[in-house]
Amino acid sequence: MVVLASKLNHPAVLKELLSASAEVDVPDRGGFTALHYACIENRRKLVEMLVRVRLGLTLTPTLTLTLTLTRKLVEMLLEHGADPLIKTKAGDAPNQP
């Protein structure tokens, strides 16, 4: 349920599940956890909630910087012509907005 709440961007549901001590690291059939989906979809609020529970802490300056730099690097790559829809050799493609 935690994965689904993250995947569907339901912070209120996620908060309730986390308050009930739901397991945060259980992956879905594809091997993705709630934190994977929150990061993939750039859902900062969900990332913060999951990181707090998973690691027992709030976002540290280092983690905040990492998330910010990652976003800025992706933006820079896109500005320089990177194809955000390119597929891997295995046929995997990024999630569409």
Poorly predicted runs: none
**What count of helical segments does DSSP give?**
5
Oligomer: single chain
Our estimate of the beta-strand percent is under 5%
Report the average pLDDT across residues: 80
Content-based structural category: mainly alpha
| Terminal CA distance | 22 Å
Largest beta sheet, briefly? none
Counted beta strands: 0
- Global Rg: 15 Å
- The best one-word shape is globular
N-to-C series of helices and strands: HHHHH
- Fraction of residues in helix: 40-55%
Structural key phrases:
97 residues, mainly alpha
Give the topology, please.
Elements: H1 2-7, H2 11-19, H3 34-40, H4 44-55, H5 61-79
Fold and architecture overview:
It is a single chain. The protein is an all-alpha fold. The chain is 55% helix and 0% strand. Helix 2 packs parallel to helix 4 and helix 3 packs antiparallel against helix 4. The mean pLDDT is 80.
Short description:
This protein is 55% helix and 0% strand.
